[in-house]
Fold:
Amino acid sequence: MLPPAAVSRIRDGRMVADSYADASVIFIDMVGFSELTKRISPGHLVELLNTFFNHADECAALHDVEKVKTVGDSYLAIAGGNVESGNSADSAIAFARAVLSCTADLQRVAGVDTIGLRVGIHSGPVVGGVIGATRMAYDYWGDTVNVAARLQGTAPFNGMAVSESTWLRARDRNIFGTPEAMTLKGIGETRVYHASFDAEEDVEAPEAKVEAA
Structure:
């Protein structure tokens, strides 16, 4: 639940507040989930979310990415925070591609092909820390987190949208198309790079362990 370094500070009664100058925030949302909640049972919904989140957790461990939290049907992660990861943009993109590789399995579990994923990635400074005294968790804040969430909304079905700062930081830029100037709510005009992927594409991802419902 908490990084070891944060636990030691909490035990000593110290405040847990950290600054990271070069992180990449990944925001992933399940497309079509809200509509699906009207059609399938609660148990089926939990099975679908478990398939998504468990796969994402395994991909995070594989690519040195830190899971921050899940919110509803969304998954927030970060590269370059508490978990060391060389080039944070490369780690974030590799993680996102690995997570996107499970979309075919999600569709089999859901029983429909309208379920998919969208990813937003933005690189920049973030602040991390622990607040509150109950159900404590290490969280991250800042414009970098907000921009990643907004970018997710512009991503193609089963694809990703990255900011210019992430694109410039990444070594493999060939997967992205021509940038678009887009106006993000609360952010303003932003250059956005998009990429779509085949669900069966060969990427470094953990073997799926799901069964059709």
